[in-house]
Amino acid sequence: xxxxxxxxxxxxxxxxxxxxxxxxxxxxxxxxxxxxxxxxxxxxxxxxxxxxxxxxxxxxxxxxxxxxxxxxxxxxxxxxxxxxxxxxxxxxxxxxxxxxxxxxxxxxxxxxxxxxxxxxxxxxxxxxxxxxxxxxxxxxxxxxxxxxxxxxxxxxxxxxxxxxxxxxxxxxxxxxxxxxxxxxxxxxxxxxxxxxxxxxxxxxxxxxxxxxxxxxxxxxxxxxxxxxxxxxxxxxxxxxxxxxxxxxxxxxxxxxxxxxxxxxxxxxxxxxxxxxxxxxxxxxxxxxxxxxxxxxxxxxxxxxxxxxxxxxxxxxxxx
Length: 319
What we know:
single chain, 319 residues, mainly alpha
């Protein structure tokens, strides 16, 4: 058991670190070859926030643990909204003003509902995985097109995407970090999944619950750090944009992995209990952010409610 816990911790740390280095190297290479920093930020850097979840989903699916992969996709979205945004709003109420969020919030709601429809029959097919992955690239392409169309946009979320692109990195260093990331990402995710699976079997916990809890929380730690850093700099839209973008990518890219690699039936609880929790929290976020009440603010009270929902959900999972 000690070895399994050690594998879980080492795999989690390695996964987050290697994902960061992979994105750093890939973004630096893209910049050195002349791609616009904003486009790099909206593609490579943005997708990098979901790289840990994607790699866990791939590793779990390859080992036949589709429930872990599905649990990670749903659990990460639940954790991002209830835990990450809950804690962030408790630290400081979040102001919502970005025009980009006005586009992404309805998109997140639609994509969540669409994925929910796919999950209702308690099975994922290769066709559904292909649709989800295709939508992922369509969303990325559409976002880039809208951004280039409105080059004068002062949206802080766009500014952050551009600022996150490294500059002044030599091709040699960029390639080195890219290769390091490419090697350690799959290795770390495999170690993480193996450790989590052993722990689940030891305690008699389902693979779905492990994906919903330990793995989902671990892979959401970068989002928590990013949100706290954003509000400290009074960049509220960046905190929300990070969560909304990550959740969109989790549904389209992460959920596509078990469908493409290990299609078939899965734990019915994912299509019932966990799906409805994710949809309910996504809808709650929509109403908290949307302009129905004059100024849009996620208050400390709402943050406390989100965090309370997360704690109650964890209790339900383990009872």
